[in-house]
């Protein structure tokens, strides 16, 4: 008798499971349709809807278990929507197959011929920047970097010359016909910076400063976005999406090393990020060999590796007198070392 009853219950359970499966499939299909119609879900409304449902719970499950159960169901049926959204990131190759080419006057970054970006870690004086610029001009390098707003680990370290530093960059760049890149750390300075520099750099420490990313998205000036110190490639791409989604499509990505346990280099140069980013995104990808290694002695092989992996450009720090530099003294090349470095990279034929 008991045996027969058990079999009946088992059958009933199987029937309910089949019905549940059908209902869940129907729910997922409807959620997918909604996903196609709406840009993004409204989490507050979703939560309210779920709470209304849980309030009706009269099952043997307690409220917490019911909430957990529904949480799982809702998450499972909303993931096709999320996957759909991810696929359509504007920075993704899935939404645009053609390479983005960022134009700096005559210079095309991402157009097939890699670019060399060089210059001091910090703008320290007119004389210092002019010396570097003259050397770059002579070497045939057309894009100069130099930090005026310096995000330093310690508040007691040199913080940069600020707007005054941007003015120096402009004056020197105009004299030598160079394009300039400089980091901006506050949304309030973005507009002003556009008067003085050609590319706004967003540094590793600010890769997820979302208000800064939004401000960078609101101007129409090329942005060089550095990978965060511990950022995954996915986070890096989403940070770029913040800028591109606000209409500024001129974004370049730059791998600058990530923090690992390795102490032989300042950071670990993630070479694999280059082909992955080139595959996943249409944006130009550069590699900063100075901040990734923190050394001067392995820059040629690292630059070659980056270019061989498909990088659209290299960034390196150069200072007339690195020993006296106000920041990153250990990693900056002097002018003679830079000339040797550049010749070494040119010799590889990888700069095109
Ligand atoms: C820089 O390029 O000046 C700099 C501070 O680098 P990062 O943001 O990569 O540390
Ligand atoms: Mn530096």
Automatic annotation (TrEMBL):
Annotated ranges, domain Chorismate mutase: 1-85
One matching Pfam family = CM_2
The family database entries (SUPFAM superfamilies) matched by this protein are listed as: Aldolase, Chorismate mutase II
**Nucleotide-binding among the record's keywords?**
no
Q: What UniProt keywords are attached to this protein's entry?
A: Coiled coil, Transferase
Q: Which GO terms describe its molecular function?
A: 3-deoxy-7-phosphoheptulonate synthase activity; aldehyde-lyase activity; chorismate mutase activity
Coiled coil, from the record:
6-33
Q: Which InterPro entries match?
A: Aldolase_TIM (IPR013785), Chorismate_II_sf (IPR036263), Class-I_DAHP_synthase (IPR052899), CM_dom_sf (IPR036979), CM_II_prokaryot (IPR002701), DAHP1/KDSA (IPR006218), DAHP_syn_2 (IPR006268)
Q: Which GO terms describe its biological process?
A: aromatic amino acid family biosynthetic process; chorismate metabolic process
Q: Which domain of life is it from?
A: Bacteria
Q: Give the EC number.
A: 2.5.1.54
The record's section on PANTHER family has: PHOSPHO-2-DEHYDRO-3-DEOXYHEPTONATE ALDOLASE (PTHR43018), PROTEIN AROA(G) (PTHR43018:SF1)
Matching entries from NCBIfam families are given as: DAHP_synth_Bsub, PRK08673.1, PRK12595.1
> What is the protein's name according to its record?
3-deoxy-7-phosphoheptulonate synthase
- Give the organism, scientific name: Paenibacillus piri
Q: Organism classification, top ranks?
A: Bacteria, Bacillati, Bacillota, Bacilli, Bacillales
- Give the encoding gene's name: aroF
């Amino acid at each position: 008798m008991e045996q027969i009853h058990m079999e009946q219950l088992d059958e009933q359970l199987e029937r309910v499971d089949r019905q549940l499966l059908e209902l869940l499939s129907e729910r997922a299909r409807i959620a997918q349709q909604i996903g196609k119609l709406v840009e993004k879900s409204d989490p507050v409304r979703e939560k309210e809807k779920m709470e209304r449902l849980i309030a009706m719970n009269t099952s043997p499950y307690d409220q917490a278990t019911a909430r957990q159960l529904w949480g799982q169901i809702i998450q499972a049926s909303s993931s096709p929507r999320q996957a759909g959204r991810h696929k359509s990131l504007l920075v993704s190759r899935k939404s645009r197959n053609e390479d983005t080419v960022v134009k700096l006057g005559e210079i095309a970054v991402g157009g097939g011929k890699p670019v060399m970006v060089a210059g001091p870690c910090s703008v320290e004086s007119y004389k210092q920047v002019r010396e570097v610029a003259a050397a770059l001009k002579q070497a045939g390098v057309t894009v100069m970097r130099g930090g005026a707003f310096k995000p330093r680990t310690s508040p007691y370290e040199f913080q940069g010359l600020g707007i005054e530093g941007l003015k120096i960059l402009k004056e020197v760049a105009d004299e030598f016909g160079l394009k300039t890149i400089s980091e901006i750390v506050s949304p309030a300075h973005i507009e002003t910076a556009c008067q003085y520099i050609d590319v706004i750099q967003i540094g590793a420490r600010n890769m997820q400063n979302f208000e800064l990313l939004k401000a960078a998205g609101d101007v129409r000036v090329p942005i060089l976005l550095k990978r965060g110190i511990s950022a995954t490639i996915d986070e890096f791409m989403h940070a770029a999406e913040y800028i591109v989604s606000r209409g500024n499509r001129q974004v370049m990505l730059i791998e600058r090393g990530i923090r690992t346990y390795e102490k032989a280099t300042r950071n670990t140069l993630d070479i694999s990020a280059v082909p992955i980013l080139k595959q996943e995104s249409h944006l130009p990808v550069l590699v900063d060999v100075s901040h990734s290694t923190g050394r001067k002695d392995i820059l040629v092989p690292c630059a070659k590796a980056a270019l061989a992996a498909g990088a659209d450009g290299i960034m390196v720090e150069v200072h007339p007198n690195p020993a006296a530099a106000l920041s990153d003294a250990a990693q900056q090349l002097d002018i003679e070392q830079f000339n040797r470095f550049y010749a070494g990279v040119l010799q590889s034929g990888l700069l095109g």
